Amino acid sequence: MVIKMSEEELLRKLSEAVISCDREAVVKAAQQAIEKKLDPLKAIEKGLSKGAIVVGDKFDKLEIFLTDLMMAADAMKAGLNVLLPLISEGKISKKGIVICGTVKGDIHDIGKNILAALFSANGFDVHDLGVDVSTSKFIEEAEKVKADVIALSALMSSTIGGQKDVIDYLKETGKREEFIVMVGGGPTTREWTEEIGADGYAETATEAVKVASELIKTRS
After folding, report:
1. E-strand spans in 65-164?
2. Cα-based distances in Å from 205 to 14, 143, 189
3. Which residues pair with 184 in a beta bridge?
4. Could you tell me which residues come within 8 angstroms of residue 58 by beta carbon, excluding any fewer than 6 positions away?
5. Residue 99 Cα distances to 63, 113, 125, 146, angstroms
6. Which domains can be identified in the chain, with CATH numbers?
7. Phi, psi at 31, each rounded to 5°
8. 0.85 cut: is pTM over it?
9. Which residues, 6+ apart, have CB-to-CB distance to 144 below 8 Å?
10. Backbone angles phi, psi at 181, to 5 degrees
């Protein structure tokens, strides 16, 4: 006996598979969505993305660990790999391209890793430059991939000036308006964000994704 799943059940299955960090279940559900001729764009936005939002909220509430977040992001990517090829380019709701990294002199990567994972899980194209990233490297990569957002992480008060250096460099070269610049990390504050002329600031990775999404919408 073949049990037919409704569209609502399939979307819930996609979402729950991401929440469960179950890569194989996500792929299977995505394939089932295709077989049922479910709109792949709807499967992404109402299924995969909904699961990613739940994962982000759970992480912020300390209900799951960083490893869970990374696994959920990997599961999300696997589902996207199945569904995206079936969407005509004009219909894809592109979230945006993000360059992220920890500024020069700072080798802390946990916060930056969380941010990259959550951006990825929410459908952004993420280019993680790692730690101890020079000002010129941020700009070069942003121009190379035509980034929408440059996300600068700093975990020490002694390195926070690296965030300002990137913005100053963009201003000096006449490229400031080409990119949305966001800052984050332990020593950063809203006041610091305003002082250096950054576009956005967030205390948590989940909030950063929401802020980036809104800033991109505002620019488009």
Report:
1. 97-102, 125-128, 149-153
2. 23, 24, 14
3. 153
4. 19, 64, 68
5. 27, 12, 9, 10
6. 7-90 (1.10.1240.10), 97-219 (3.40.50.280)
7. -65, -35
8. no
9. none
10. -110, 125
Report CA torsion sign: 74, 75, 78, 79: negative
Q: CA 143 → CA 117, 139, 180, 200, distances in Å?
A: 22, 6, 12, 20
| Token duo for residue 126 | 């993420």
Sign of the CA dihedral with 42 first, then 52, 194, and 139 last = negative
Structure tokens at 56: 């982000």
CA angle 72, 40, 214 (to 5 degrees): 65
CA 126 to chain centre: 6
CA distances in angstroms from 210 to 39, 56, 141, 153, 201, listed in the order given: 25, 11, 23, 17, 11
Q: What is the C-alpha separation between 203 and 96, in angstroms, rounded? A: 21
Q: What is the pLDDT along the chain (220 residues), one digit of tens a residue?
A: 344 678 999 999 999 999 999 999 999 999 999 999 998 878 887 898 888 888 888 887 889 888 888 898 889 888 988 987 886 654 555 689 999 999 999 998 877 887 887 787 777 889 999 999 999 999 999 999 999 999 999 988 999 999 999 999 999 999 999 999 999 988 999 999 999 999 999 988 878 988 999 999 888 6
Q: Is 207 exposed, middle or buried (0-12, 13-18, 19+ CB in 10 A)?
A: middle
